[in-house]
Amino acid sequence: MTTWLRIMLRKGGNELITCALANTGFEGLGPDVLMPVGIAQRLGLSLSGSGVEVYAVRTASGIAPIYRLRENVDAKVLVDDRDTSIIKLTTVVSESVDYVILSDKALTELGVVIIDAGNGVWCFRDELGRAFRNSCTPG
């Protein structure tokens, strides 16, 4: 199993809740969130204009464009037993991903620690050694 976090993403009046992959192998330039085009569209983000940098990256299926937006999105981890802080994440959009992925630096900003990657167990940094949280199920 992989570690998945239930998160809220918001841009302006557009908000959605999804399970995001907590991936420490995604070494972002900063606290980045990688998302599919459809999620970006649901948040009202544009992939064209002066606020977008386009890069070509090699993927398993060939070369694909990656869109790095200058617009941030608000994000927070959703759990039942506490309210968490909203942070700003830099938006990266790709046609070659099917789900939301949080960068290593985004996990640090969210205060998330992966305890058992194979079983999808995690906690917040201030709970280390005291709490064990299970992953959400992506759908």
Strand content: over 45%
Order of helices and strands: EEEHEEEEHEEE
Mean pLDDT: 92
Shape: globular
Poorly predicted ranges (pLDDT <50, ≥5 residues)? none
Radius of gyration in whole Å, from Cα? Answer: 15 Å
Strand order of the largest sheet: 1-2-7-3-6-5
Coarse structural class:
mainly beta
Gap from first CA to last CA:
14 Å
State the total count of DSSP E strands.
Answer: 10
Helical fraction: under 10%
Description:
- By secondary structure, the protein is mainly beta.
- The strands form two sheets. It has a six-stranded mixed beta barrel with strand order 1-2-7-3-6-5. Strands 8-9-10 form a three-stranded antiparallel β-sheet.
- The chain has helices at residues 37-42, 104-110, and strands at residues 4-11, 14-22, 32-36, 52-59, 62-77, 87-94, 100-102, 112-116, 121-124, 133-134.
- The mean pLDDT is 92.
- Helices cover 9% and strands 49% of the residues.
